[in-house]
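DM between two lab members

TW: hey, do you still have the Isoaspartyl peptidase/L-asparaginase entry open?
JB: yeah, one sec
JB: this one, 314 aa:
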Amino acid sequence: MKPVIVVHGGAGRIFKDREDGCRSGVTRAALKGYGILKHGGSALDAVEEAVVVMEEDPHFNAGRGSVLNEKGEVEMDAIIMDGKNLASGAVSAVKCIANPIKLARLVMEKTDHMLLTDQGASAFARGMGVPEVPGEKLITERSLERWKKNLEADSNPQQFQKDLGTVGAVAIDSAGNVACATSTGGLTNKRVGRVGDTACIGSGGYADNNVGAASTTGHGESIMKVVLARLILYHMEKGKSPGDAADSALDCMKTRVGGLGGVIVISNSGDWAARCSTQEMSWATVKDDQLHYGIHAGEWHTQPAEEAIGSRRC
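TW: and the structure you got?
JB:
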């Protein structure tokens, strides 16, 4: 099996001044994950490390750069899933953790559970030796400005929810195993303790070697209502291609509950798709040593992966 990785940096409204940063972020993440796959690494390792790249990039609503809750704090959700055995781990409402996706994987591999939240997740992180970082280290000026703006009496927080920035990755490795990973800071000015779709298996992501893998982004409550990631795989089980399955699922979410979002999908044969019902979604993929990426509908850039890696080193 030829390895393939696809990543997204969130569906929604990507403002002009942030487009270059988002393109750069998703391409770096895809190249990082593909490098692992090319050297015989697992799909699970590839999606985890790709998401770490984006968690550490302030252009995205995950890790450093996460939006703030109603109290001005960062609360993050993440999930990872192994298509080989359907093992999954997730965390929700975690604070002071630089890379929630790494903690999610520890939940998968070191506990008998699938999801830990808030104080329980924090206690588990300490027990695993995961270092804490000061909460302010995860807060960007942009997130702080948006939070303050939403506190004003005449503000409308919903206008900012279109710029969501959740990150995710799906991959297939040379052994034919698939995996997914998704990480987010959630909705800006959300209630303390709010858990969105990202941490929920079947909504924020799903991976099954028998079918493929998907990672979602968009309005979390809408995604949960239709269990978007698993819905996509259901359509693939019925014979649809990754692209057609993604389109059908997104259309269902928009028609049934009025929700918008985006998805990346990969099949167990290595076919892939990146689709969204929003204005934009940053995405990138590497297949057959070719990097492809874009943001706007119809935008498609292609570059040899080795050339892309070299240019980013410079």
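TW: got it. The first strand starts at residue 4 and ends at 12. The first helix runs from residue 19 to 38.
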